[in-house]
Amino acid sequence: MGNASMRRWAQTNDDHERLPAKSAIGAAVFFALYGLPQAASAQQQAVSPPGSLQEVVVTATRRAQTPEEVPYSLSVVSEEQITRANVTDLASLATQVPGLSVYDFGARFAGATAPIIRGLNATSEPRGFRTFEQDPVGTYIGNSPISGYFHLDDIGRVEILRGPQGTLYGAGALGGAIRFIPKAPELGMLSGQLGAGGLTTAHSDGVGYTLNGTLNLPAGDTLALRVSGKYDYEPGFIAAAGLLKQTGSPAYAVPVLADPADPINSPGVFLTQKDWNSQKTFTGRASALWKPIEKFSAEVAYLYAKVKGTGAPEANPSFAGGPDPLDPRITFPPGGPYQAFNTSTDAFSRTTDLLSLDLSYDAGFATVSSTSSYYTTDGSTIDDDTYTFAAVSFIAYYAGNPFNPRYIEHQNYTDRAHTFTQELRLISNTGSDKPLDYTIGAFYEKQARYGAWNVTDPGSFERSVAQGCTAPYFSGASFPDCLLLAGPNDATFVQVDNQNFQDKSVFGELTWHFMSHGQVTFGGRHFKQEFTDAQSYTDYPFATFIPAVPHSSSASKNTWKINPSYEYAKRHYVYATWSQGFRRGGANSVPLAGFLKESPLLAQYAPDSVNNYEVGLKGRFDNGLTYTFALFDIHWDKPQISASLPSGNLAVYNGNTARSKGFEFESGGPLVLPGLTYSVGFAYADAKLTSNFALAANNGSGTIVPGIVTGTAGQQLPGSPKVGAAATVAYDRNLAPGYDLSLSLNDTYRSQVPLFLSAVPQTSPAFGLLNFSAALAHKPWRLLGYVTNLADKREILSPPFRLNQLGNLTNTYVINRPREMGVRLFYTF
After folding, report:
1. How do residues 78-123 score in pLDDT, each as one tens digit?
2. Which CATH number fits domain 3-175+192-217+229-828: 2.40.170.20, 3.40.50.850, 3.30.2350.10, 3.40.190.10?
3. What gap in Å lies between CA 411 and CA 381, rounded to an integer?
4. Whole-model pTM?
5. Domain limits of the chain?
6. Which of 145, 303, 609, 709 could be a cystine partner for 285, CB 3.0 to 4.6 Å?
7. What are phi and psi of 497, to 5 degrees?
8. Helix, strand, coil % over all residues of the chain, rounded to 5
9. Alpha-helical runs (H) found in 348-482
C-alpha cells in the first residue's frame, strides 16, 4: 500500500483505539487469549526497521483493512520475510506457509502444477503436459489473474486467502486465492535499489548468481514510473550419465553415430554432465501511475518472465553400474543420491507475460474501479522416457527388430494460453459508522488454451530404412518386415488439444453493521460459462488417426456467502463463515468411436463446488502480539480429477463427494528480550473421499468396461500433507550507531503427501527443513547471508513411476534441493 492508502486506513480506524470489552463473554475470551504467548505471525509483519512491529494493511476484501479485521482465515507474507527465507517462486513460498502446498518438480513442470489450499485437490502428481482442469486456487498479481512461472521481485506482500472465495474471486478460487501485491509507483519520489549476490549449492560444481534492480522515477507531480528486474542463475546439483549426443533441436535430432560407416550397429556418442539440472530466470516489471487529481488514478503495468534450463531434480541411487542394457558395449557408472541416467538433456523453457490496466475514481458515495488484463504463458518441456518405455512388451514397434542400440524416446510437451479478463467494481465509501456498505461488480473472461503432446523416436525410423526393411513391423515379424512407422520429425504419437472458455459473472457483497462492533456480510455471484474442447490423436506405429471432434459444455450457477463477525474487545474478533466456491466444468474431446473410444459419459465433466463452514478467532494486542485460529469443515461435491484413463486417453472426470476438515493457527510477536521475535504457523487438513464412485472407460483393449475408473470412500486426496508447520525466531539489534543486525532461524515441516488417488496410496515421506539468515545494514547498504536446508537433508518428493526395470535404470526419484548458501548485497537510494 502507498502512503496515501495507509493514511486513509488510519483515518477510518481511529475509533478502534477506544474499543472496550463489550460483554462478560467477550471479556472471558479476551483474558483467556491474553494469557497465551501470542505474537505477530510471520504472515502479518510488515517490511519494517529491525526490531519494530507494525500493523499491516491488506486488500483481500477489496478494502484496506488490517489482517485481523478480515473475517476469515488469511495469511500475509511480507517483503522482508520473502528475502530472509530466499523465497523465489510459488513453490518455495509454499514451504513457508502451512496449509499451502504445490507439487514441486521444478520450473520445468510449472505449466502442469497448481497451488493447493486446505487439501482441495483430487488430481495426481503432474505430467509434463499442462493441466486440463482449472486450478483449484486462484492466483493473482494485484487484481489481475495469472498463470505461468515468474520469480518474486519487487513484491510488497503476498496475501493467502484460505477457503473458497467464490464471491469476489470467482471460478477457480475453490480452495482459496493467492495475491502477489507488487509495489506501485510513488509520486514525487526518486528512489531505487540495486542488488547482486552469489550462491553455492551442495553436491554442485557450479556457482549461482542473482542481479536485481528497481527504479522509481517521478515525472512531474502527477506521473511516476517504476521499473524492476531480476536475473537469476541456479546451478544444478544432479550429475547425468548416458546423454546421447545430438545435433539440432533436442526434441527431434537424430543421435550422432560413433561409427558413421555403420549406421545400423554403431553405438551412440555418450556424454556425462555435471550440474545437469540448472536454470536461468529473468523477471521484469514496468508500471506507470497517473494521478491528475486526488480522486482519479490510472496504473498500467507490464510483467515479463522467462525461464529456461535443462534436466530435473531426479536421481537414481539403486543402479549398480555396468553395461547399458540397451547397448551392452556402453558402461555406466553406479547410481547415487545425486546421480541420474538420461538419454536427453531434457531442455525446457517458459515465457509468461501480463499486461494490466487499473483505473479508480472516487465518486464520493463509492469508488468505481476497473481492472483490464491480458496474459499469456507459453511453455515447452522435453521429458526423456527411454528407459521406462524400453521396458514395455511392445517396444519393437518403436525400437526396431533387432533393437536399435541408439534408441531414444522423448516426450515433448508444448502449451500456450491467452487470457483476457475485464472486471468492474463499485465499492461504497461508507465505513463501520454507517449501517451498510457494499461491493458490486461484473466480470468477463475469454481464454484460449493449446497443448500438444509429441512422442518422438529420433533415428529409429532412419535405421530401419538403412537395414533395408521394406514392410511395416508387426508382432513376431522378421526381416524384411521390420520397417518402423513414424511421422514428421520421427514422431510416433501426437496429441493436439485446443480449449476455449468464456465466463460472464456478476457479483456483490453487502455488509450490515447491525451494532457498533458487529457486522454480517452477505455475498453472492451468478456466473454463466461456455467451454469447448477439441483433441486429435495420431499413433503412427499402429496407423491410427482420430480427428478432433469438438465437445462442448455450458454451466450457469449461483454461489453464496454469509459471514458474521464481532469485535468483542479492542482489535480482537470472532467470526463465522458459510461460503461457497466453484470451479468451471468442461469437456473432454476423447474419441467416441474406434480402438481408443471412450464412454460418452466422459465427453463432459461437471463444475465442482464446495460448501465451507468456518469459525475463527483473531486479534492483535497493543504490543504487537497477534494470533489467528480457524476451524473449518468443507464439503466438496463432484470433485474434478484429471488423469490418464486405462486406454491412455487424458481426461477430467468427476468423483462423487469429498470432505476436508481441520484447523489453522498462527501466532507471532515479541519474546522476552528486546528485538527478539517469533512466528509460528500450523495447519491440519484431513481431506478424503467420502463416497465411492465408479465410471465406465476403455480398458486399453478397445472395450468399454463399466466401473473400471473408481474411487473409494476414505481415500486420502493427493497433493498436500495433513500437517504443515513453520516456525521462525528472529533477532534484531543495533550493533553500533548506523549498524543494524538481523538474524533469523526458520524451521518448516510437512507430513507425508499422497501422490495418487489410489486404494494403495503412494506417498512422499514426512520431513522438515532448517533455514538460517543474517543481515547487516548500514545506511543505504545491506548485506544478507542465508542458508536453506541447513542440514543438507535429501528427501524423496516422488518415487519412480516404474520400479526395478532394466537393471533398476528406471528407479528415478524426484528429490528436494540440497543445502544452498548465498550472499546478497543491496544498495538503496
Report:
1. 999 999 899 999 999 999 999 999 998 889 988 888 999 999 999 9
2. 2.40.170.20
3. 8
4. 0.91
5. 3-175+192-217+229-828
6. 303
7. -130, 135
8. 10, 50, 40
9. 386-390, 396-399, 460-466
